[in-house]
Amino acid sequence: MAEALYEPYAEVLSVAQSNKDDLEALFDPEQGFAPRMRKICRDQILAYEETGEYSDELELMRLEENTWALLQAVMPARKTEQSVLNSPRDLLQQNPYTPTSTIAQAIMGASPLLTELVVIREWLQETAPAPSHPEATTGYWKFTKHSVMQALRTGAGSRDGLVKEMDPDAVNREDGRSLAADDASYEKNLAQALYGMVRAGRLDEAIELCRRAHQPWRAVSIRGSLFFHWKAISNENDFEDEEDADMWSGNRNRKLWKSSCTRAALNPALPDYDRVLYAALAPSPQTSLILKSACRTWEDHLWAQVSIMCEEKEMMELLRLGGSFWEGGLAAVEKGVRSVSQETVEDEEEQWEKEVHQALDGLKSVHVEDGPAADHPFHFSQLNIILDRSSYLLDIFANGLQNGSYDVVAYEYAPMCRFFAHLCLYLKMIDIPVPPNSAVIILEHYLQVLEAAGQRDLIAMYAGALGENAINRYAEFLVSLELASDPGERRLALTRARDHGLDQDSVATATAEMSMNKAFEILPPLKGPLPSVIGLQPPPPDPETFLLRSIEWTIFSETTYDRALEQANHILRYFLASGRIQLAQKLLSLLPVEISSIAEPEEQATEYLHYRQFFNIWENLERVTECQALEVPKMNRETRNSWLADYKLLIDQARELITKLLTSEWLVSDVETAGVDARRRALIRIRQIYVPELIIRLHFTLFNSRHHFPDNLNLALKLSNIVADSRYKLYEDFNNQSGRRLGDYLEAPPAPSSTYRHFMMSKHSKLRLALLRLSLTFSLIATSRAQAWQEDPPSAAATKACQILNKTLPGLVFFPGAANYTSDNFHYAATSTQNSTCTVEPLTNEDVSAILKIVGQEDVRSPFAVKGGGHTSNVGHSSTTGVMISLVKFDQITANDPSTTVTLGPAATWDQVYAKLEPLNLTVVGGRIPGVGVGGLILGGGYSWFTDQYGLALDNVVSYDLVLPNGTFVRVTDETEPDLSFALKGGYHNFGIVTSFTVKSHPMNGIWGGTLSFSANDSELVFSAVEQFSANNTDPKAVLTLTYNNGVMGPSLVANVVYDGPVEQPPAVFEEILNLPLTGNTAKARTLTDFTLGEFQFLVVPQTGFTQHVIPTLHYTVPIMRTMKIQVDAAVAKAIAEERSIATVGMNCEPYINDFAHSVDSAYPHSPSRPVTPGNPLSFYNDVADREYFEQLIWEMSEAIHAVVIQEGQGLPDDIHYPNYALADTPVELIYGENLPRLREIKERVDPTDVMGLSRGFKI
C-alpha cells in the first residue's frame, strides 16, 4: 500500500516548489508543506488500520507523521522573526505585581531555546497516545464507604484491613490499612488516567475527570500547575471589558504548590501511581527518577526530559529575578529586582543550552520498554531535528546509503528514502543549509526507489532537484527504460524534463550519448575478419536494438537534429562495419528527412549523404532481384515486354548508381592508409565490406541478364575496367588481410598455379586479379561454393554416365564451368553441397525415365542425386559427386478446375506457390520459409501454419506423377497404387522420382501474423506463456512457434504467431504472450506471402554451414524450454571456447494442438494417438570444415534436451523422428518405425535392382 504515497508526496512537493519563496505559505498550519505531508501519512494510517494488516508499515507511518508534525512545530519558530517583548526584568521593575504567567511568558520569549522546548513539549503532548478513562463511578470510595458506615451503625468496628475514615489521607495515615479492593483498583486506574492526560497536555480533561470521580482535591492539585494570571495587573490592554479584567486564574502560590507536589512524589508511603502523577505535575531534577519510571516509550522519555528542563528554566529564572510579589511577598518587592550583568545572563544561558543538549543527547541510547527503540531512524531523526543538527542527520543517512549499510529490500528502506528526500527538499525551500553531496546521494537513491516502484512519471521532478547533476541523472533514468518503453512513452518522459525545469535538448543529448555508450560496452568491437553480408542475419539481440533505438532521443525535436546527424553516422558506421545491413536500413527509416538538409559540420553531412547513396543502391539491387523473380515461363507477349522494360530500367539504374559510387571517393579515400582514427578505420572497413559486394552483385546482375540484354556482357567487361582503373584504387578494397579478398568472394581453388602465384607477388596483383576474375571467371564460372569440399575425383561410373547422358539428352547436361552446372549444384548451405561430375536438367517425364535407365544400367551404376529446392541440411541427401538430376524445369504451379486441387512441380518454392494462389483466394499446406522446395518438404512430411487444420503436407497429396526406378511412368493415387501412395508419403526418393504433386487446396482470405521479439532476460515469462499455449490452445487456426538463438551477436528470443483468417485485431488466444514485455512486434493482418517473405526473407540468404536435428515432443513445459536455453547457451560457449566458426545455435519449439489429427496411411508414422511435435535444434557456422563438429554438438544438445522431455513425460526414447529435420545418421527405425518392413517389401517390388540405392538419404 505504501506505493500509493509516491504521487501524493510529489503533488505536495510540486505545489510547495511553486511557493518556495513564500515562507508564510510553506509554514501555513493547514496547507503548508509539513502539514500536508502529515495529512498524507494520517490518511495512510487510517487505511492501514482499516485493513488490520501491515503492522510494521503502520508503526513506521505513525513515526513519519509525528516527524512531519515536529518539523511544522519547530521550523516556523526558527525561520520566523519573533516579536520583541518586554524583558521579565523590565516588567517587574515597572510592576512588581505582574502575574507570574506574564513573567513566565517573558522568560520564554527571552530564551529561543526555551521557546522551542515548550513547542516540542506541546508536540509531544499532541502526538501522545489517547489516555484511557476509568469506568464511571457512582460515588467516592463507595465500597469502602459502605464498610465504614456499616461499622459506625453497628458499632462492630471496621472490617479487617480497611480504613476507618474517608478523608483522602486516610490510607497514608492509618498503618497497614487500605481501601476496598474495587476502590483501590479504581484509584490506581484513575491516577494512571490522570497521568495519561497530563502526559497529553489535557489538563482541563483531567480536572473534569476528577470532578466526575468526586475527588475535587485532585482537581485542585492539577489546576495548581497553572501560573497565576490576572489581566488587570499584568499591563495587558487586550481585554474587552472590565468584568474580564477583574477575573484571575492560576495558582497564586505556585511555589508552595510545587514544593508540596515534589514532597508527594518523593514520599515512598504513597502508591507509585500517585507519586508518578505528582512528578508529572511538577517535573524537576529531584522527581526525575520517579517520572522516568513511568516512561514506556522513547517519546515518553523525551517528554519527561523536556518537561523537566522547561519547568526548571522557568523556576530558575523567576528565582534569579526576585522582586515579584507573587513569588516572595512584600519582602521581595522591597528588595526589588536583582541586578545581573548582561554578560552573566548570556554566560548562564549558554551554559544552560549546553546542559540541555547534553541531556537530550543522552536520549539516543535510552532504554525503551515499548515501541521503536531509541536508535530507530525516525527517533534518531527527531532528536537531531530538535537539536538543530539537520546537516549531521542528512550526512549520516547519506553515508549509510553510500556504504550499503541499509537493506534495500527491507520494508522501511523505501519509506526512509522517501522521507529523507523530501526532508532535503523541504529544508532547501525554507533556506536551511543542506550538505550538497548528501542531498545528491539521498535524492539519487530515492530516484532508484521510484524507478523500482515503476513511478516513471515522477523521475523528472526529483532529478531536477539534483542541481548540476540533474540532467545526467535524468538521462540515466531515461537510459534505464531500455527497450520496455515505446517511442510515445519515451517522448513523454523527455517532455517531463522540460516541465520540471530541465533543458530538454541537453537531456536528450545526454540520454542518446549514454545509451550509445551502454550499447557499445556490450557489443563486440569492430575488429577481426570482415563479416559476410550474404549470410544469415539473425534477429537483432537486445544490445543492437538498444543501440538502434538510442537515435529516438535526438529525433523527437528539430532542435537536436544536428546531434542526431552525428549520432546516426556513428550508429550506421557500427552496423555497416558489423555487416548488420538490415539494422542500418531500419535506422535510416527512423530518421526525419530534414536531417539530409543539415550542412554543418560538413564532414558529418557528407558521411550521412554517402550512406544514403549506398542504401539507394542497395534498395535498387533488391528491386532488381524482385523483378527478376517475376519472370515465369508462360508469360504472354505484352506482359513479357512490360517485364523486360522494367527489368532493364532497374538494371540500368543500378549500374549507373554503382558506377557513380565506385568512381567517387565514397566515405574515404586512400584505403591503404588506415591511421589511428577509429572513425577512419571503421569507414575503411565499411568500404572493404561493401565495395566488393556491390561490384560482384552488379557483375552477376549484368552477366545473368545477358540472355535478355546481350549488351550487358559488354557492360560487365566495362565494370572490370573500372575495377582495374588505378585512379579509383578499388583493388585496395579487396586487400584486407584480416578479412576477405577478392578470391574469397569468388571462392577460388586453394592451390593456385605457379603462374597465378607469380601474379600474386607483384605489387598490383590485386588489380590484375580483379580484372582477370571479374571478366573471365565470373562469366565462365566453373567453380561453386562447394569447392570448399575436398571430394574424391569423379568415379569412372559417373564419368561414363555423364558421357552417355550428354549424347542422349543434348543441351540438358552441364559440366564444370557452365552456369547451369553451378546453379544445379547450389544448395542453401555449402555444407550440403557437393561438386557433381555433371548435372542434367530433364524437361519431361521421358527425360527422367532416360536418366534413371542410364545411371542404373548394369554396366554404369553411377551415384546420383535428385534436387528440387536444395534446402536440406544433410550432405548427400540431394547432392552427389556423381550425376546431379536437377528438377529445376519442373516448377509448375497450376490451380485445377474446380478449385479443389493444385498441381505443383518439385522445384517450385513455397513462397512462389503462395504468391500464385493468393489472387485465387486459395492456399495449400506447405512450407513456412521462403526458398524451400516443394518436393523435399512433401516427400519428408511437411509442417505448415495450417497443420492443425489440415494435417501435414503429405496428408494433403491427392496424386503423384512418378517415374519408377525402371523408367516407367505412373500416376499414383490411393485408389490406383495404394502401396506406392503409402510409400511416397514420407518415403523420399526410395521408390523413384516424383515430377509433380497434386494436392488439396484450401480457402485463403488472409492471415493475422508476425514476429514477437522479447528480451532474453524475460525468457521465463515467455516460456510460461508458451507452456500455457502448448497445453491449453484449442483453436486450430492459431499457431505459435518459439525460437531461442544465441551466438556471436548475443541471444535473441522470438515467437512467430499466425492466425488463419482476415482478422484485424490480435486474436484472444495470443493475449497472454502479447501482454508480456515486447521489444518488437510485427504482427498484423496481411497476406500469407507478405508474412512469409516479410518475416523470413533473411533465411533465404545462402549459408556456409547449416546443421539441424529433431526432438520429438508432445507438449513444451517450462523445464523443457529452460533446458533448451541452457543447452543452447552451453553449446555456444563451448564452440567459442574451442575456436569454432560459430554464427548461431538455436532451438525451435512448435507447439501444435495435434499435428497428426488429420493423418493418412503413410510411410512416416504419425498417429493421432501420439502427436509428437518436432522440436528443432540447429546451428549456423562459417567454415564447412566444422560440419562434423557441429553435427556432434547438435546431437549432444538434442540428447540432453530429449532426456528432460522424457523426464517431463512429454516424450519416449523411441518416439518417431521427423525426417526433414533429422541428422543424416538417424537410424531409419526411428523414422519409419513399424512401417519399415512394409516399405522394404514395396521397395523390393518396385526397385529390385536397387537403382534408387545409388542415391543417398534415408535408405530403407
Describe what is shown at a glance:
This is FAD-binding PCMH-type domain-containing protein. With 1260 residues, this protein is an alpha+beta fold. The chain contains 52 helices and 22 strands.
List how many beta strands DSSP finds.
Answer: 22
Pairing-aware structural class of the strands and helices? alpha+beta
Largest sheet composition: 9 strands, antiparallel
Number of helices: 52
The gross shape turns out to be elongated
Span from first to last CA? Answer: 69 Å
Strand content: 5-15%
What average pLDDT do the residues reach?
Answer: 86
List segments where confidence is low: pLDDT < 50 over at least 5 consecutive residues: 737-792
Identify the quaternary structure here. Answer: single chain
GO biological process, one term: mRNA export from nucleus
GO cellular component, one term: nuclear pore outer ring
Domain FAD-binding PCMH-type: 832-1004
Subcellular location: Nucleus, Nuclear pore complex
Structure, described:
This protein is α+β, with helices and mostly antiparallel strands and 1260 residues long. Helix content is 51%, strand content 8%. The chain is built from 52 helices and 22 strands. The strands form five sheets. Strands 14, 15, 16, 17, 18, 19, 20, 21 and 22 form a nine-stranded antiparallel sheet that branches. A five-stranded antiparallel sheet has the order 7-8-12-10-11. A four-stranded mixed sheet has the order 3-4-6-5, with helices on both faces. α4 runs antiparallel to α7 (112-126) and α35 runs antiparallel to α38 (765-777).
